[in-house]
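Question (not urgent): is this output format expected?
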Amino acid sequence: MDEQLAENVAAVKQQIAEAAKRSGRDASDVCLVGVTKYVDVSTTRALVSAGCETLGENRPQVLWEKSNAMDDLDVRWHMIGHLQRNKVKRTVESADLIHSCDSLRLLKSIHEAGLQSGKLVDVLLEVNVSGESAKHGFSPDEMSSVIDAVQPLEGLKVKGLMCMAGLGSGQQDVRREFDLLRELLESNRASAPPNVELRELSMGMSRDFEVAIEAGATLVRVGSSLFRGLR
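Got this back:
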């Protein structure tokens, strides 16, 4: 298993490097977030040993459990799935970055948890770039007002934006959706308050992370490509 994981991580990192080069960027500009939602602690540990030290979990409870079980390792944990407000406190304690901030109510809860814990919580704003009703996230038209509303929330820092491409989107639509997220980040950066940096773009998964990098992604959330060939 260890050898297969090492080969998979190396292959994905090579794809990241090539996509970055095509877009005139350096591979170091892009962070690989290994999505471990379908694997156990043992396999997750092996993934870290294979060279993937930033990990993403979709479910808060699993993130709590794995971060506790692996606290002997130097791992950066990212919460990438939908987060309910009643799970914020524990998640703030465990996660280095929360990608999926999709409402002002959630942001206020994170701010309060950050103040209580004495931790400035790094977050991303999730944007529904595909317009699908089943997807979470702010609409692109809301970005300016949401950023204004975040200004007084001193318990958090907005590091950037996050999106998921539409499930039925073809390659051209995927690129358009990723381009839209980058444009939103760039157009709002200059007027953003001090606690809104707008530097990170979390977009792209196993099926489309190369397109995302070409569009400007700084964080790609890759799962199945890392575990290909494992029994």
